[in-house]
């Protein structure tokens, strides 16, 4: 039996015009250097949906609306066990306002570029889902 704590994680998959909001994990943290979507640990009584919205605001400054849960994934990393709730989100801001946003190190990436980025292993099914759902082909 695994005695490690499992972390529930809410992740905002922010989509706008077939582009996704992505950052790079900083040095000194688990999975440093990997690409990531905004997100983090859920608080005790917080839903994964509310967590994804809150974490996106904290990490990027962007207000988003959660649309639906795209995918749920459980994964055991060396550093932790995680339950990942990937939530499709849309920006509340208009296109004009988005262009002026300082996203705190996060950037918009077109869906076609997602397979070329280095994401943590637990994101593999999500990336395939996004590419198949949002690509032109």
UniProtKB/TrEMBL annotation:
Keywords: DNA damage, DNA repair, DNA replication, Hydrolase, Magnesium, Metal-binding, Mutator protein. Residues 3-131 form the Nudix hydrolase domain. Pfam families: NUDIX_4. This is 8-oxo-dGTP diphosphatase. The gene is mutT. It catalyses: 8-oxo-GTP + H2O = 8-oxo-GMP + diphosphate + H(+); 8-oxo-dGTP + H2O = 8-oxo-dGMP + diphosphate + H(+). Coiled coil: none annotated. Its cofactor is Mg(2+). It comes from Gimesia fumaroli. CDD domains: NUDIX_MutT_NudA_like. One of its GO terms (biological process) is DNA replication. Belongs to the Nudix hydrolase family. Its EC number is 3.6.1.55. PROSITE patterns: NUDIX. GO terms for molecular function: 8-oxo-7,8-dihydrodeoxyguanosine triphosphate pyrophosphatase activity; 8-oxo-7,8-dihydroguanosine triphosphate pyrophosphatase activity; 8-oxo-dGDP phosphatase activity; 8-oxo-GDP phosphatase activity; metal ion binding.
């Amino acid at each position: 039996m695994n005695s490690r704590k499992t972390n529930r994680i809410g992740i905002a998959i922010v989509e706008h015009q077939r582009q996704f909001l992505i950052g790079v994990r900083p040095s000194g943290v688990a999975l440093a250097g990997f690409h990531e979507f905004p997100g983090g640990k859920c608080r005790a009584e917080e839903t994964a949906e509310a967590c994804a919205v809150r974490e996106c605001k904290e990490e990027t400054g962007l207000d988003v609306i959660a649309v639906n849960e795209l995918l749920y994934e459980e994964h055991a990393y060396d550093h932790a066990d995680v339950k990942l709730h990937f939530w499709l989100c849309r920006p509340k801001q208009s296109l004009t306002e988005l262009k002026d946003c300082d996203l705190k190190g996060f950037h918009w990436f077109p869906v076609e570029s997602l397979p070329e980025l280095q994401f943590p292993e637990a994101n593999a099914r999500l990336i395939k889902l996004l590419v198949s759902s949002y690509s032109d082909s």
